[in-house]
Amino acid sequence: MKTGLQNNMILKDISLTRGLKIIFSSLNIEFLCPGLNIIKGENGSGKTSLLMMISTLLQEDRGTIIRFGKLKKNNWLNEHILIKQNSSLSDELTIEENLKIWCGLKGWNFNTDKIQKNLEHFGILKYKNSLVSECSSGIKKKAELCKLNFEESFKLKCWLLDEPLNHLDQNGILFLEKIMGKFINMNGTILQTSHEKKINHKNFKLIKL
Amino acid sequence: MINYLANPNRFLNFIKPIEFSLGFLSFLFIFIGLYLSLFNSPEDYQQGDTVRIMYIHVPFAWFASFLYFSISIASIFFLIWKHPFADIIARSIAPLGLIFSILTILTGSLWGKPMWGAWWVWDARLTSMLILCIFYFAYIGISNAFPRKIDGSKPAAILAIVGMINLPIIKFSVDWWNTLHQPASIIRFDGPSINQEMLIPLVLMLLGFLFMSIFVILINIKTNLIFKKYQSELIKIG
Amino acid sequence: MNINFKNILIALIEKEFKSYIRSINNLMNMIVFMIAIIILFPLTMGPSEEKLTLVSNAIVWIALIISIIPTLDKIYIGDFKNGWLEQYYFSPLLLEIIILIKCFVFWFFLIIPLSIFIPIFSILLNIPFLIIFWNIIIFAIGSLGFCLIGSICSSLTLGTKSNNLISPLLILPLAIPIFIFGNGVVEAVKSNYDPLPNLYLLITVCLILLVISPLISAYSIKIALTR
Question: For residue A79, which of C92, C6, C97, C226 has the smallest C-alpha distance?
């Protein structure tokens, strides 16, 4: 699945401004590929902006981002998942519908069984028919992270996780670490921002902004 | 030349000497034009003295459309080459264009009341001019509607380009539809159909308005540039 | 990885349909607003038949247009706020096509149901049957163009501080061709001329919008997302 393309993710001399505010000027990072990259920094140091920029939601002013060799933009959009800090679930739909439609939008084959099993892994199966607007933020976060636990998600190249541990309880964190380990073993790259200290994974690269 | 002037500092240095002369020229032309048009031009055989409104109505109308055209061109430049200076130019033109389009409508209705017996009629030329005015309002509104002002540049530029379809409608509305508004009499294939003695003050007024528009726009651009500099200084300080 | 485009289409339509069904009060608001306008006209003008027959058709149109606009400039704002527009952006299907489908679904599930009310209101205002028939046809075609214009305007104003003011201001001037040709059809029917030329012009305007609107909307949505 991943042969034929270079496995690297490099930022070269990046500068990014938002409005008149300069966030990065000549930033150079080489990420660990495959592997876990943890991005640390103070509030406002541009952790989220970095992830948004890598997933093309922000446009860099100068410099080049090498995303797995010369991956075309459209291919890149289908080869990564961005999980933002605040959930991107539709309030009018139930949790199960949200995941189902999300899978559909990605063009993946899905069935109700798969989604229900996925929800069960995170322990939120009993909330599957409740509207997102009625759920607590922890459940929303778990539903959001369910997107990572599909068969197809493990075949992707990269996960961009913005503060994935926020709002999660102990079981949730343990399960998330389990699937993150599985993804890295399957040659995946994870970019994770975090302000938490403890990280259980053995092999990771720490990036300070 | 354009590349050379696109740098804000060079631009500010460049306009410093010509600024005063532009203002002086515009004053001179408008003064002479007004004198000639008010005291030294013939009355119209049908319209009498009210025809003198033409000497300000026509320049307002022309420059209202022309300035919108300039905004659209600057917006195209901005969207394609992403040069922030084009955006500043477009933003600086918009208020003047809005004022011109409002004044066109006002002088037009002052002229229309004695001639047509109504302040306003819903014919093609007048309506399309009103729409131009709305587009100006929308342009200014959308370019300032965002929490960070700079975010409004691109949507406003798209709007300016979309609104460009209105310009040919304004120009040709009097030829395409039967309207109360008189047909074009200056820019025609067979030369102007207007009396020589009326044409001279009109041309003087047009030149005066041209210089005045450039003068005001330059000052606006200067203000915007200085304001932007000031803001970025503020952010540097923290 | 093989991408199943049929799944994308089904998911897209399901999502839009469900969110319109769940927020059915939007439709109810539109209908209540329409009824209010229809009632207000005879009350404020006096109920004399002669006056009403002159303007009755215009009243129906005003009621329809005014009640559609508040919903129309919010096509994208909900999805923009809860992050679904980003999911659309990340989808393998082109954003332009997604927007076209979104506009179609909006038109089909939220605007077309309103055409049921045209005959009811028309009967209340004594509009002859032939004109009611043409009104429905014009509404079906013209409202699609109207939605596409609304798509442009609401995508331009994504992320503004207060988008209520600007987009109605924008929708009306852009929609003038639709009003002119729609009115042309009705006038032709009223005076026994051939209404088809005006109808063809109306269809032309809508076809042009069908091409232009997704392009502009997708472009400005990308701008709004990558801000």
Answer: C92
Q: Nearest-CA neighbor of A143 among A186, A80, A86?
A: A86
Phi, psi for residue B6 in degrees, rounded to 5: -70, -15
Q: Is residue A26 part of a domain?
A: yes
Q: What is the pLDDT of residue A2?
A: 45
Reference C64, options C154, C175, C153; nearest CA is C175
Predicted pLDDT at C147:
94
Ramachandran class of C181: left when φ > 0, alpha when ψ lies in -120 to 50, beta otherwise:
alpha
Residue A1 lies in a domain: no
Hey, of B148, B225, B226, B230, which one would you mutate to test binding to chain A, going by the most A CBs within 10 A of its CB? Answer: B148
Give the structural domain span for A52. 9-208
Q: At what angle do helices B84-116 and B54-81 cross, to 10 degrees?
A: 150
Q: Could you give the number of structural domains in chain A?
A: 1
Mutate to test the interface with C, among A21, A79, A105, A160 (most CBs of C within 10 A): A105
Q: What is this model's ipTM?
A: 0.88
User: B169 to chain C, minimum CA–CA distance in Å?
Assistant: 11
Which residue among C11, C84, C89 places its CB closest to the CB of A104?
C11
Question: Which tokens belong to A111?
Answer: 């069935």
- Full domain range(s) for residue B131: 52-179+192-224
Q: Write the burial class of residue A20 (CB in 10 Å: 0-12 exposed, 13-18 middle, 19+ buried).
A: middle
pLDDT tens sequence across C181-199: 998 899 899 888 888 999 9
- For residue A89, the chain C residues in CB contact (below 8 A) are 82-83
Q: Structure pTM?
A: 0.89
Q: Which residues of A touch C (CB under 8 A)?
A: 1, 56-59, 74, 77-78, 82, 84, 86-93, 97, 100-110, 152, 155
pLDDT digits (tens, 9 = 90+) for C80-107: 888 889 889 988 888 999 999 999 999 9
